[in-house]
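S2.1 Query sequence (Gamma-aminobutyric acid receptor subunit beta)
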Amino acid sequence: MTIIVATIRSRPIRPMASLTAAFILLTALATPVFADAPTYRPNVEEAFRAMTETVNISAILDSLQTGYDKRVRPNYGGAHVDVGITMHILSISSLSEVQMGKGAFTAATNSGRAAALSSKSGGGDSDDGGGEPSQDFTLDFYFRQHWKDPRLSFPGLHGLEQLTVGSEYLSRIWVPDTFFANEKKSYFHTATTPNEMLRITNEGGVLRSMRLTITASCPMNLMYFPMDRQLCVIEIESFGYSMDHIRLSWHAGDKSVAIEQGVSLPQFRVLGFNRKTIIASTSTGNYSRLLCEIAFVRSMGYYLIQIYIPSTLIVVISWVSFWLNRAATPARVSLGVTTVLTMTTLMSSTNAALPKISYVKSIDVYLGTCFVMVFASLLEYAAVGYLGKRIQMRKNRILQLQKMIEQRKAQHLELSHEGGPDAADHAPKQTNHRIGSKQSNHRDHSSKQSVSREPLLLLPTEPTSSDQIGWAASGARQLELSSK
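Output structure tokens follow.
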């Protein structure tokens, strides 16, 4: 066929020859080279139809912009726009009471498509000191918005009812100015392309879906820490349009919020979630607000191992001093001081990981009780040592007085056998000097006075005869005179 065409073109062009060449060319195209070989020619009708549909879709997208003003919401001056919201939570990365240091969350700036959705603060450059109060949580989720814009409706073509276009088309149409009221930081994912999708139906329905990572505030009540439960909320609201223009709602009812299976945190478990719709009243008007409440319960395993069991063992160790000998002063004192200091360190390290709050927590009550018991063990040894010393001093005084009584009895019997009754009457006077010389050997004046008062209390415990009582009283008077 190529040779024929070349031959025809190499000759001078004549009208009759041109018609002949055209006829031969058409015949060659219509007749296959081999009768049994398959035809490799493409289906002209399908190719033409595909080309026509592509041209029509592009024409539809271009025609939607004819007379379209993205600065004006749909139905402006008429009914409000209903914006349906759905969320699919992929992960919950953190739920913390305090800020754990710089770089805990890195927010990146993007091309500005999600600027109306979330107020990006560029948190990657912030310097957050460790231990500062934070009380927030971070979650990664798909955020989808549904609304209807009659200006974007188009006639169906070959059963075409929905258009899925690139996110670049969002800059050419009106979108709700939705934002998160309790957001601290946010991140719009752009790897490998901006994680955003747009769908338009032939009836003007619009679906916008994107992937976001949000850090939102979550005020916590730590009164029952670490056996507490926390309720964190995501607040969704229109920034500039009041309820007269935009009303938010949960698009799929009970299925509007979904959490991925297996979502968990190191210190918390997800109990469930709840959806609410409220009206937020401000000085600029009433706004429709959606609430997604997520309930968490704290896991006790970490605190049992790190706090409760060690503090209990420290209290038990402090009780070991009760079985030690009272005379083992170094062992008992060192054991008591060590347990007190250990409990103090444990209490300080526990409170260092928590925000500085003014009310008492459950763990404070437990650790405070353990500290009191450990400190009481140390005070117990001091009290026992003091009382034991007092008892021993009293026993020594009693023994001394009993010895003095025995000496008086022996002297009385000796005088009664040697000199008769008259000598016995003068015995107290003869022994004044001897008694005074013995009492002069006492160490100080206060001990003499205490000894002189003891016979009046202790002597009636052994009233063997009237002579003993008389001699004891006489001896007491002599001790008082000698002490003066």
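The chain has a mean pLDDT of 76. The radius of gyration is 51 Å.
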